[in-house]
Write a sequence for this structure.
């Protein structure tokens, strides 16, 4: 049985007397431990779907199940990484990471140990006592990632988390995320506008049409052993880029 099941999800926003259809009959599923990227034009409904999966946003129609349980509202077994780190400036790095555990009433010795492990894994151990404004953008997003993982969620939802970073830092963060996924075994649903990023990170890339979003194509990506930057220069990578570009209507002036 699939870990995440999204079946015929439709979302309609009402703005005054008008109706805007953001998602229309969107369906996809994936197994536990998979890394799945949602790729599509700006404003096509990718973030909307991410919020529906988290239970933060109601759907108009359709079904969403996580771990066999239908999503009917917010639940605790996921971590969310937003486009901006959204760290609390008055708290140091460790206290920002541990904030979810305080909300859950579980800031104990085990939580402190877990925070230390995550900070070490992300190269932030020596920055545990500093404030967010003392960190670079990439380091702040690492803190945000640690915070999302502190309670050991089975599902990690990520909304263009590296979009504001420079290209070099973004590539570093891609590799870090893959290492963290291997360490934590979390399933990942990742929103991006970058074709190359989606292909590099994912087991499956789901390409959406323009709004109202429908699934245009699912591209399976498989490699032998750990993924590295060399993968970007393989024929498999190039072919996946071509398929994604074609589905997005970027080749031959096509409209999708």
């Amino acid at each position: 049985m699939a870990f995440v099941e999204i079946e015929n999800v439709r979302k309609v926003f009402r703005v005054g007397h008008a109706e805007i259809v953001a998602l229309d009959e969107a369906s996809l599923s994936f197994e536990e431990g998979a890394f799945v990227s949602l790729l599509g034009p700006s404003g096509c409904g990718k973030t909307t779907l991410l919020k529906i999966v988290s239970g933060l946003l109601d759907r108009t129609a359709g079904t969403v199940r996580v771990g066999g349980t239908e999503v009917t509202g917010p639940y605790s077994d996921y971590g969310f990484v937003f486009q901006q780190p959204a760290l609390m400036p008055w708290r140091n790095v460790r206290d920002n990471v541990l904030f979810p555990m305080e909300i859950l009433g579980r800031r104990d010795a085990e939580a402190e140990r877990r925070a230390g492990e995550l900070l070490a894994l992300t190269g932030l151990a020596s920055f545990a006592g500093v404030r967010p404004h003392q960190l670079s953008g990439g380091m702040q997003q690492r803190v945000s990632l640690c915070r999302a993982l502190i309670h050991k969620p089975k599902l990690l939802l990520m909304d263009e988390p590296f979009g504001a970073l420079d290209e070099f830092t973004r590539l570093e963060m891609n590799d870090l995320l893959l290492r963290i996924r291997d360490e934590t075994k979390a399933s990942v649903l990742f929103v991006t506008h970058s074709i190359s990023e989606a292909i590099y990170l994912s087991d499956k890339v789901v390409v959406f049409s323009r709004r109202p979003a429908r699934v245009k194509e699912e591209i399976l990506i498989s490699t032998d052993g750990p993924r590295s930057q060399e993968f970007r220069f393989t024929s498999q990578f190039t072919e996946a880029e071509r398929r994604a570009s074609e589905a997005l209507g970027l080749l031959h002036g096509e409209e999708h």
Observations:
- Residues 87-152 form one domain.
- The beta strands are 4-15, 18-30, 35-39, 61-66, 69-70, 78-81, 155-159, 187-192, 204-208, 215-220.
- The mean pLDDT is 92.
